[in-house]
């Protein structure tokens, strides 16, 4: 997949996941649903399956989308640095465009 196509897919993925999380937070407050409720669990499974599908589509074989979403909160956390090639390649992944470049480079065998 071309880099620009990956960027488009990742922007749409982030927008969808972020919108869903915002709506889920609002719903949880209204119905006072606990995070372990069946409804919340089902929605999280949908998010995870969607993320895995997008990852396959864009050639992410290393679970970078999961990392970006769950570990660094869509790039907003300070610990968003990736080190490749035994420290020769250090990248800050703050945006989906940064993430797209990482996935593209790794799929292309550059790292």
Helix count from the secondary structure assignment = 4
Give the averaged pLDDT, no decimals.
91
What's the story with the biggest beta sheet?
2 strands, antiparallel
Radius of gyration, rounded? 15 Å
- Could you name the ranges where pLDDT drops below 50 across 5 or more consecutive residues? none
Number of domains: 1
**In whole angstroms, how far apart are the ends?**
17 Å
- According to DSSP, the number of beta strands is 2
Numbering strands along the chain, what is their spatial order in the largest sheet?
1-2
Structural class: mainly alpha
**Portion in strands:** 5-15%
Order of helices and strands: HHHEEH
Oligomer: single chain
Q: Can you give the helix content as a percent range?
A: 55-70%
Molecular shape: elongated
Architecture overview:
- 63% of the residues lie in helices and 7% in strands.
- It is mainly alpha-helical and 111 residues long.
- The chain has one domain.
- The chain has a two-stranded antiparallel sheet with strand order 1-2.
- A hairpin with a 4-residue loop joins strand 1 and strand 2 (89-92).
- Helix 1 (3-31) runs antiparallel to helix 2 and helix 1 (3-31) crosses helix 4 (96-107).
């Amino acid at each position: 997949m071309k880099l620009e196509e990956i960027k488009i897919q990742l922007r749409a993925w982030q927008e969808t996941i972020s919108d869903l999380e915002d709506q889920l937070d609002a719903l949880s407050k209204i119905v006072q649903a606990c995070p372990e409720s069946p409804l919340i669990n089902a929605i999280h499974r949908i998010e995870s399956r969607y993320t895995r599908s997008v990852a396959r589509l864009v050639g992410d074989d290393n679970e970078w989308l999961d990392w970006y979403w769950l570990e660094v909160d869509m790039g907003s956390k300070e610990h968003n640095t990736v080190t490749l090639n035994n420290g020769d390649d250090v990248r800050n992944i703050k945006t989906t465009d940064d993430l797209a470049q990482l996935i593209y480079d790794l799929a292309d065998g550059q790292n």
